[in-house]
Design goal:
Number of domains: 1
Pfam family, one: Caroten_synth
Shape: globular
Strand content: under 5%
Distance between the termini: 57 Å
Structural class: mainly alpha
Low-confidence stretches: none
Number of strands: 4
Keywords: Membrane, Transmembrane, Transmembrane helix
Protein name: Carotenoid biosynthesis protein
Helix content: over 70%
InterPro entries: CruF-like
Number of helices: 8
Largest sheet: 2 strands, antiparallel
Radius of gyration: 18 Å
Order of helices and strands: HHHHEEEHHEHH
Length: about 220
């Protein structure tokens, strides 16, 4: 009985902590939404964008369960491939098109904010879990998760341009951006699928929903 009571206590404590972190994520997205929509506050919340992304990533990985070599290798590859594709894109126009980053996303290396690598890692991690147990075939699961990332990018792109995250040549978002996103996302999602670490995180899908709702509402309200 004592062992069962202890297990129930641990389970309830974990459930409560997860809900607290979910509440924090929702509050930060709602406050961020309000700040971006009100013109007088927008410049301050643009400045806070990197901190917002880092906070969400930190909260997410607080609940990550498997800090194995395989996971660390995945994070390095996801960050490196995502960031590397952006550096290539900025300097050559391949694979996304011709664009440049503004100052909003913070410190840049090779004219690309370091935060972009973290963004790729975050999006692959939270979208990869959607089909983690639903689809057994690695290639189909990776492609399906990459489609989710492209759909997210469809929501993000117009908002990012308006908020000076980045800007496109001739102010037009090219179709090549979404094709490029699909290709890079598929590659990193395949690495995610092939990597041997525990992929269940109680915040992943909740954070994915919050991000999608956040950018959807900004598309409507900005």
């Amino acid at each position: 009985m004592h062992k069962k009571h202890t297990q129930n206590y641990v389970k309830d404590y974990f459930f409560t902590k997860v809900n607290i972190f979910k509440f924090i994520i929702t509050v930060f997205h709602l406050v961020g939404l309000l700040g971006m929509v009100i013109p007088d506050l927008r410049v301050y919340f643009q400045f806070l964008t990197p901190f917002h992304l880092l906070l969400c990533t930190s909260l997410l990985f607080y609940f990550h369960k498997d800090w194995s070599f395989s996971f660390y290798l995945f994070t390095v590859l996801a960050f490196g491939l995502g960031y590397g594709s952006e550096v290539l894109g900025v300097h050559t126009g391949f694979p996304f098109g011709s664009y440049t980053y503004g100052p909003v996303l913070g410190f840049q290396l090779f004219e690309v904010p370091l935060l972009i690598g973290i963004n790729w890692l975050l999006l692959v991690y939270i979208s990869g879990e959607v089909f983690h147990k639903k689809i057994k075939n690695d290639y189909l699961a990776a492609f399906s998760s990459a489609i989710i990332m492209v759909l997210l990018d469809v929501l993000i792109e117009p908002v990012a341009v308006k908020l000076d995250f980045w800007s496109w040549e001739n102010d037009l978002i090219p179709a090549s951006n979404f094709v490029g996103w699909l290709g890079v996302a598929f590659l990193i999602q395949l690495i995610y699928r092939k990597s041997n670490f525990i992929k269940i995180n109680p915040l992943s899908l909740y954070l994915l929903f919050n991000l999608a709702a956040f950018f959807l509402l900004l598309n409507i309200l900005l």
